[in-house]
Structures
1.
Amino acid sequence: MPCPSPQRKGGDGRLTTAIDPHDQGPQDACGVFGVWAPGEDVAKLTYFGLYALQHRGQESAGIAVSNGRQILVYKDMGLVSQVFDESTLESLKGHLAVGHARYSTTGASTWHNAQPTFHPTATGSIALAHNGNLINTADLAQMVIDDEADGHLDLQMRMPPTSTNDTSVVTQLLAHHPGQTVEERARDLLPQIRGAFSFIWMDEHTLYAARDPQGIRPLVLGRLERGWVVASETAALDIVGASFIREVEPGELIAVDEEGLRTQRFAEAAPKHCLFEFVYLARPDTVITDQRVHSVRVEIGRRLAKAFPADADLVIPVPESGTPSAIGYAEASGIPYGMGLVKNSYVGRTFIQPSQTIRQLGIRLKLNPLRDVIEGKRLVVVDDSIVRGNTQRSLVRMLREAGAAEVHVRISSPPVKWPCFYGIDFATRAELIANGLTNDEICRSIDADSLGYIDLDDLIEATSVPKPDLCRACFDGIYPIELPEADRLGKHLLETPVHATALPVLNNP
Ligand code: SF4
């Protein structure tokens, strides 16, 4: 485990590294929230639900509300707290609502691609929010063209030409087919959609939720005294005072209206829950597949301590996602736990470009070392993952400059070697440091004294979820939903020239 490296020690005195504040770790692909609750302030409930889900997407936020006659959508770029204020929320009156906090996967980060997506239907309209990423977007876009050719698509019902995300394509397909109700149309359409989707959508009267047959992204159902809530994570139920009922099952379609809650299956469940949700994506106070995420992370830390012990004086986390595993590492190793890094909690995605001077401070925008805690200590530093390696390299350098005698890095996920096509934006395969380098080489590259990654099977055991029920493709390269050809995948699929020609309805008004 110690890096076989002669080089060392002490910082090199430079704060300027290759760090970019935008060189972030894995980015999640959205938080979704829906509520049906006559008599309640559904816009505010949705606002607070999205607030609890902000970690899942920070590029844009939106809320759609229906008063039974029409749907009103308000969305904009930025954090939930930047997009909405009291007067905006006051104007969103109704008894059901759908909300979304976005990080872009398919489709650029633009206002037109912000969600919920809105579309007129033959009898009204729908608004849809999506967590996940589809892998047959090109086929679905072709279905829109075929619908038009078959006369199912009124020209006035085309998607705005500037919307280029997979969610807009699904919204169009749900909205067409005037001969069917939205529910009937969903039952036909959902089995044709491939990839990761936790959808929440609404028409003027009914709230709908559906989860892909693999249940890759989480989706939970909660109960209010006078209504129902569906959300990405249980933490969002807690914040609005809803009690957790159960997960929306993989392959399940739920509808809620004045007649109550109806449920039906559109596909057999074949669970492949995202393993990375346990490591990093979900909030620690969330429950996934009956497992408390915080407890799972503490257990990962215990296992890391047994597999990769260190002769050290202090265990510190990289806050906040490394914190539970650092607690577990300290507990199992007997090495004291302490806070060696202070996180600026208010660093979200900023639209203010930092000047070059500020950019060069890099990671200090997010983390600052506590010199008096660190000085002269042999540290174990626990982080959740290494993607490109730039952040950890900067972190080690920063700790050495703050006086650390040794820095032993422990990672609570296995090496990330493969990209995710189901809703997490890591990096391209070529950018993933573990794709090209051995663990020893990574250790040297980040200039740590030693490096230990949790073993994949150890991680899976810590979750208590059976291995066949988990997607772990970013670690082992086994993709549970077969991927199409590479040219039919990608964030900018609907923005590329080839599709501009092949899929005219998406690009020509
Ligand atoms: S590839 Fe990784 S991040 Fe993506 S769904 Fe599978 S486990 Fe999760």
Note: The domain at 31-137+163-280 is CATH 3.60.20.10 (Glutamine Phosphoribosylpyrophosphate, subunit 1, domain 1).
2.
Amino acid sequence: MADTKLLQTHYSKSIHGSHILHFHNVLDAYGHLSFRHPTDSSLFFMACSIAPALIATEADLIEYRVSDGEPTNPNAAQGYIERYIHSEIYRRFPDINAVVHSHAESVIPFTISGVLLKPCYHMAGFLNPNGVPVHDSANDVVAPNVPDLLVRNTYMGEALARRFDGDNKVTLMRGHGYTVAAKSIELAVFYAIYTQKNAAIQSAAVGLIAAVGGSMRNLRLLNDDEARERTASVATTAKRAWELWVVEVSDSTLYPKH
Ligand SMILES: [Zn+2]
């Protein structure tokens, strides 16, 4: 009974999470959030192939095996092609319980320009101070798949998952987007939103420096100590953001109530 209630709570959190990510422009009609089954670590859930803003109930969620990214019910509805991003991260990292994959526009320039995305402000200390890694899925394409940069199988998912070694929380994907791994649904949503905001801030700062003919060495980023301290404190304050974000989407007529 307690297990059922826990699972219901996770269903609800994940649906709120998808709506929140849409509300904050991290997801549009594409991208996805998943979570690991709270009492059976060999399983995870993500929505069937619909826009995240329109997920209405747990009936829209599909249960998948971590081992191969395939649904436990062979008659399940059509799922997202890129579910292997999620399955391989869960397979590699037993302490990861939620994953977000996004195509947010503000992040894309950092996947194609050679300019490293770094923590610019105190809300994004979870980003790697040495630069967020950029993964190129084109290197993992095996015939007969076409090189469209989508993560289409466990092989491609495993290559991406390796980028999260060393407690890395965010990986950029060349010409595609980014993926976030976290210990909870709330933290995954938090990291996804503030990665996008940090990218917009960094682009704006670089533009300001260029406008006055300044040197990029004037870009003052968080140092290692500052980033580490902020990462530790975010985990304790993320609840405040989550509570606000739930109210925002609950008040909007766009998102189905559940
Ligand atoms: Zn994608």
Note: Strands lie at 32-36, 43-47, 61-65, 98-102, 134-135, 170-173, 177-182.
3.
Amino acid sequence: MREGVILRCTVCKEENYIAKNDKRKDKIEVNKHCFKCNAHQTHKQKK
Ligand SMILES: [Zn+2]
């Protein structure tokens, strides 16, 4: 069973994406578009 994780914008703290963290214990960090900032921002895994 796969675990979904929430990706949160590091700038405005909006929770924009859900990612699958397969067999990874490290926190995910990705550069994605934030709809609130209306720009690409770093999104980090919540928790
Ligand atoms: Zn944002």
Note: The domain at 2-45 is CATH 2.20.28.120 (Rubrerythrin, domain 2).
